Amino acid sequence: MSADFLDSNILLYLAWNDDRKASIAERLLREMPVISAQVLNEITNVLRQKRRLDWKTVDGFIEDLLPFTKVLPLNQDTNRAARRLAERHTFAWYDALIVASAIEGHCTRLITEDMQHGQRIGDLTIINPFR
């Protein structure tokens, strides 16, 4: 059985005032999902730029996530696969990196609200949990 891959937009609801979506994110987090270093970078950027949180708060948020996730690195193979996916499926660049990471992590579901719900890329299915 494969783990789900969570996109940053799902995990960020843990820092927003949307109880329904935060509850769904918490449930997904209890299943030990896979994320990538990119997801951590995106969360950090949004918390600093949009929420204007201080570094200590951002650090605490990230550190609280880590025990509940498996974090994959980004490398040249991820970049290469993402370039192929972006061209083939016309994904935006950072979405292609997320998809490539999910595939590298042997995930069967990519949980995100940024891409087409139900779209399949090989064995990976994109799921919007808020639909």
Share of residues in strands: 5-15%
Q: What's the CATH architecture name?
A: 3-Layer(aba) Sandwich
> For the record, what CATH class applies?
Alpha Beta
Number of strands: 6
Helical fraction equals: 40-55%
Q: What is the CATH superfamily?
A: 5'-nuclease
Mean pLDDT value: 96
Secondary-structure element pattern, one letter each: EHHEHHEHHEEE
| Count of discrete domains | 1
| Helix and strand composition category | alpha/beta
User: Oligomeric form of this entry?
Assistant: single chain
User: Count of helices?
Assistant: 6
Major beta sheet summary: 4 strands, mixed
Low-confidence stretches: none
Rg, rounded, reads 14 Å
Termini Cα gap: 24 Å
What do these coordinates show?
The protein is an alpha/beta fold and 131 residues long. The chain has one domain (4-127): 5'-nuclease (Rossmann fold, 3-Layer(aba) Sandwich), CATH 3.40.50.1010. The protein has helices spanning 8-11, 19-29, 37-49, 55-65, 76-89, 93-104; strands at residues 4-6, 34-36, 70-72, 109-111, 120-121, 124-127. The protein has a four-stranded mixed sheet. It has a two-stranded parallel sheet with strand order 2-3. Helix 3 packs antiparallel against helix 4 (55-65) and helix 5 (76-89) packs across helix 6 (93-104). The longest helix has 14 residues, at 76-89. It is globular.
